[in-house]
């Protein structure tokens, strides 16, 4: 069979860490007298840590010094790390292991492409790190999604042409990044939100092996 590269986003695709980001950002926002809702948290999905704090400050109409900005980011991350400390395999989203195992059995390239600087710790917690031949996370990139950098580095690390890569993503910015990279974009979530994706599935339980085979054998320019 031909070899393709399959690049997975982390939060919202492999595990749901959005709930922990929410708790940590909410505490931080409240300490600044800014209210922060779950709807606003949705808008931070796939967004970098720096940009997330900038957005929260914008919503609260607050300006702070650079020094305070840095210390707030550290504080948020310390709290987030406390939440993820107890993560285990039970937090892996449905059928992710089935798809990973299938891809590995079929000798396909498998990589991670996440905005999170904590991606490696999380993969270790859920015992999936060794499934990935390449890991690209927030520590490896200088440009945030929708810039395609994270996925292009992933393809390069796998040694596979971008047009032969497939991206699984739950965020609009991530789907746009995959499209800009000329990769096949697969949205995981709501088709109304992820309408720019080539395909959308509610979750991995809807993805059949036949569909993966079709992706592997289809030639693209
Ligand atoms: P960290 P993904 C993203 O992960 C999250 O969706 C986003 O909410 C978070 O702000 C970002 O990682 C940075 O995370 O603070 O851990 O570096 O969806 O790209 O896997
Ligand atoms: Mg995500």
Condensed summary:
The protein has 221 residues and is an alpha/beta fold.
Written account of the structure:
43% of the residues lie in helices and 11% in strands. It is of the alpha/beta class. The chain folds into two domains: 140 residues, HAD superfamily/HAD-like (Rossmann fold, 3-Layer(aba) Sandwich), CATH 3.40.50; 68 residues, DNA polymerase, domain 1 (Orthogonal Bundle), CATH 1.10.150. A six-stranded parallel beta sheet has the order 3-2-1-4-5-6, with helices on both faces. Helix 8 links the parallel strand 4 and strand 5. Helix 1 packs across helix 4. The radius of gyration is 17 Å and the shape is globular. The relative contact order is 0.17. The mean pLDDT is 97.
Continuous helix count: 9
Distance between the termini: 18 Å
Q: Tell me the strand order in the biggest sheet.
A: 3-2-1-4-5-6
The H-and-E topology, N to C, reads as EHHHHHEHEHEHEEH
Let me know the CATH homologous superfamily of the largest domain: HAD superfamily/HAD-like
Helix percent reads: 40-55%
Count the beta strands: 6
Shape: globular
Overall SS class: alpha/beta
Mean pLDDT over the residues: 97
**What is the CATH level 1 assignment of the largest domain?**
Alpha Beta
Q: Approximately what portion of the residues adopt beta-strand conformation?
A: 5-15%
User: Rounded to an integer, what's the Rg over CA atoms?
Assistant: 17 Å
CATH topology of the largest domain: Rossmann fold
Ranges where pLDDT stays below 50 over 5 or more residues in a row are none
The CATH architecture name of the largest domain reads 3-Layer(aba) Sandwich
Q: What does the main sheet amount to?
A: 6 strands, parallel
């Amino acid at each position: 069979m031909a070899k393709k590269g399959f690049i997975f986003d982390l939060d919202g695709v492999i595990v749901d860490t959005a709930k922990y980001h929410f708790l940590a950002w909410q505490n931080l926002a409240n300490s600044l007298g800014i209210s922060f809702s779950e709807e606003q948290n949705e808008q931070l999905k796939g967004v970098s840590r720096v940009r997330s704090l900038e957005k929260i400050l914008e919503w609260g109409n607050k300006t702070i010094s650079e020094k305070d900005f840095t210390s707030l980011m550290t504080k948020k991350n310390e709290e987030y790390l406390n939440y993820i400390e107890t993560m285990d395999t039970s937090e892996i989203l449905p059928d992710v292991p089935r798809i990973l195992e299938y891809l590995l059995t079929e000798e396909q390239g498998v990589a991670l492409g996440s905005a999170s600087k904590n991606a490696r710790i999380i993969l270790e917690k859920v015992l999936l790190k060794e499934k990935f031949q390449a890991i690209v996370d927030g520590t490896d990139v200088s440009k945030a999604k929708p810039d395609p950098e994270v996925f292009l580095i992933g393809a390069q690390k796998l040694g596979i042409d971008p047009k032969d890569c497939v991206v699984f993503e739950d965020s609009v910015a991530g789907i746009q990044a995959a499209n800009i990279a000329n990769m096949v974009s697969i949205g995981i979530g709501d088709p109304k939100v992820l309408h720019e994706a080539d395909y959308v599935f509610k979750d991995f339980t809807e993805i059949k092996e036949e569909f993966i085979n079709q992706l592997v054998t289809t030639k693209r320019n």
